[in-house]
Amino acid sequence: MEGFYSGHARHLVSVDCIIFGFDDGKLKLLLGQRKMDPGRGEWSLYGGFVEEDEDVHTAAERVLFSLTGLEGISMFQLHAFGVQGRDPGARVISVAYYALIKVNDYYAVSLRDQGQEWVGVNNLPRLYADHNEMVSRALEALRLNAWTQPVCFDLLPEEFTLTQLQTVFEAVLDKPLDKRNFRKRMEASGMICPTGRIDKKTSRRGAALYQFDRTKFEETLKHQR
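Above: the chain sequence. Below: its structure as tokens.
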């Protein structure tokens, strides 16, 4: 097996994780400062090299778990970044993934981690190598999928009000939405269903609580195909 490709150059393959969270009404990105050369001290996404005994997606899940302690998080493969010279350390081809997590879940398991920071996506510093481009592409993909895939629900508690849902959508899309039109669109989307319960903590009058309806959503997708 070794001799089949002996005449070709070998390159390193890595994964980079773009981890979005929602906090204080804003969409944020989890960043850290590199603890190795090249780029020691620079702000960076989190990543790692793909080991010989794992596939690319498993490597991304491993990196996410080592960073946050969270498992079972939906991860979306974004793009392969392989421009020559993209990494000053070596010829590295990186497969980028993005994930959305609840910031409170992350804090609960990862207060011990140091050198990490949630940064608003509109106030990002200059990042290591081509990581700013990765983030830009991930935001584009996230906004494209917001209306057709249940990505925004990963940023919400299991039960939520329509106001909370709209706040998340506005943060992801980076623009205000008409309240009446948004509610009509969501109720017709097949993504949500009322729980019959009322939230009296965040609303003085009491607002109806909803939850993501995966079964109904998947049935709606089938009828659209």
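The two ends are 43 Å apart (CA to CA).
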